[in-house]
Amino acid sequence: MFEARVGLPRWLFVPAGLGAAFVLLPLVAMVTRVRWGDFVVLVTSETARDALLLSLRTATTSTTLCIVLGVPMAVVLARTHFPGQAVMRSLVLLPLVIPPVVSGLALLYTFGRKGLLGGTLDMLGIQVAFSTVAVVLAQTFVALPFLVISLEGALRTAGQRYETVAATLGASPAMVFRRVTLPLVRPGLVSGAVLAFARSLGEFGATITFAGSMQGTTATLPIQIYLERVTDPDAAVALSLVLVVVAVAVIGVAGQRRSVI
Amino acid sequence: MSRLVFDAAVAGRGVQAQFTVDDGQTLALLGPNGAGKSTVLGVVAGLVAATSGTVTLGGRDLACVPPHRRQTALLAQDPLLFPHMTAWENVAFGPTARGASRKAARDQAHQLLDDVGVGDLAGHRPHQLSGGQAQRVAVARALAAEPQVLLLDEPMAALDVGVAPALRQMLRTVLAARTVVIVTHDALDALLLADRVVVLDGGHVVEDGPTTDVLTRPRSQFAARIAGLNLVAGEWDDGTVTNPSIVLAGHAAELLPAGSTAAAVFSPGAVNVHLDAPAPACPNTVSATVTDLEPLGDRVRVRTLVGTVTVVAEVRPASVVGLDLGASVVLTVDPDEVAVYDADPR
To answer: Which residues contact B229 (CB under 8 A, 6 or more apart)?
Structure first.
């Protein structure tokens, strides 16, 4: 491969450097505030452990839900044509752009006790709002578009030529999907899932609105950090660092894949 | 039995064609770009919907049969090997889809890769293969699907010139007893691989006959061109073929009634180019304008326009020294070299 020989205008490096500093400096600032002497004690306290485990558990569950629901959504959007498809695509991606707190309210009015489906769920003896299930629902709601958008892009880029060949070789639609479509878009699927996981892990606004902040049940790591920010700033900073480390690890995994959006 | 009977139209693409491929026969589908050749293959494979007519394969009406149940493997210019599978896994795809056991599929894949001459590359990924090797694997993959009809869409068009002859030879061996439709631009493909030739032009069949017939006695301009022959269509009367641009004397190979539409065919080598008028007295002497000059080994191909008819001559370089594009020349053709026959489609 040739190294790029066309130069860049020199002034470009100034705003680029400023931007990088803008992103990195706050992280450095935070790290300087960590009291390393108490760090282990702070991040292994019972509330911290509960919050971290809850976050990992719910983010994993919601990522799984995103895959189960998002893969078929992406395939239908990328491979079929139906009236109103463009509108549908925009609406499905809506949680990307509406404030999370609004998402939380919307979920509350859907699954809450007095919500659209609340009555039905109540009769079935299911209480969704302010439970761990609500945490998972909130995270899935906000993270789903990341998976759909990433996978749909991968599907469109891959095109249908291999699928056509597979069909003429006698493969049923189910076999084409399993042995050709999915393997070809695996990088897109993995990066979509990683993004969804990261978004779930960081979810705050929709969760606190829809699920509340009960320790061990709905207080995920971001919520715990928010709660302790006033009462125990040292603990908040330590937990923040844990969250940053997890996020960096996730980006590291995604970075090894070719197609991250 | 896997006889293919095609009699269908695709209105949106202006294609309406009719032909038959007998069991075990190879049909070459020729025609200019945009003639509808690929559309025809698409209709057979179930990738393009026919707007009317029927296609039957081995007696089955394919109308409502989805592509994966048609048993019509399609191989295009681009091998399109599945990039996430090795060569043998690609070949084993069809057998697996058919429900063959893993071992049977694997054995068949290795056997077919041997047959097409790339048995030693079974474990390679597509990106490790050259264009010719990939196309061989693609042929093996198509054969492994055990199609009732194999559809080849210009399988050698994307290959290096040096690679095509070997692949053509390999195809000649493996296609021998199969029912095949091959779309090609190359007379050599048709001659070596096909029993019959159908020429499509503007979406319609303009010629249909045994390969040697079509290529030695073309009735369409396209077939004449790929056979490397000149063709002048006109009205036959008393030893001459008359066309608004040209009058040619020739010999009718069969009894032709006066006034019938005839094709006068002669090879470019039979055309003499004279730079200086007057030309020698000869029955077939016409004035022409040079439109193209092209070197051709030890000869020069001179493309000329006689009225609205293109006549190609292949002459020694020495006889066209100093000739420019647009120059006026005189062409002569020995009437003994002009074969005349009925121009109506067989």
So the answer is: B218, B265, B266, B267, B268
Q: Does the beta carbon of A166 lie under 8 angstroms from any beta carbon of chain B?
A: yes
Q: Which of A164, A169, A184 sits opposite B94 (nearest CB)?
A: A169
Which residues, in sequence order, are CB contacts of B201 under 8 Å at separation 6+?
B31, B32, B35, B220, B222
For residue A95, say if its preceding peptide bond is cis, omega within 30 degrees of 0: no
Neighbour count for residue B271 (Cβ, 10 Å): 23
State which H helix or E strand residue B182 sits in: strand B180-183
B35 DSSP 8-state letter: S
Tell me the per-residue pLDDT of B136-181, one tens digit each, with 9 for 90 and over: 999 999 999 999 999 999 988 878 878 888 888 889 988 888 999 9
Q: Any idea what DSSP says for residue B244?
A: T
Q: Is A111:A118 a contact under the CB 8 Å cutoff?
A: yes
What residues contact A234, with CB distance under 8 A and at least 6 apart?
A: A35, A38, A42
Q: Would you mind telling me the total number of residues written for chain B in this entry? A: 346
Using alpha carbons, list the distances in angstroms from residue A83 to A98, A155, B185: 25, 20, 41
Judged by CB atoms closer than 8 Å, whether chains meet at B82 and A175 is answered as no
Nearest by Cα to A171 from B112, B1, B179, B85: B85
**Cβ separation B82–A172 shorter than 8 A:** no
Which two structure tokens, joined as six digits, stand for B192? 């070596």
Distance CA A73, CA B110 (A): 39
- Between residues 180 and 199 of chain A, which touch chain B (CB distance below 8 Å)? 180, 183-184, 186
- As given in the structure block, the two tokens for residue A233 are 């700033």
Q: What is the pLDDT of residues A76-130, one digit of tens each?
A: 999 998 998 889 989 988 998 999 999 999 999 999 888 888 888 888 888 888 8
**Best of A165, A185, A189 to mutate (most B CBs within 10 Å, chain B):** A165
Question: What are the tokens at A86?
Answer: 């463009």
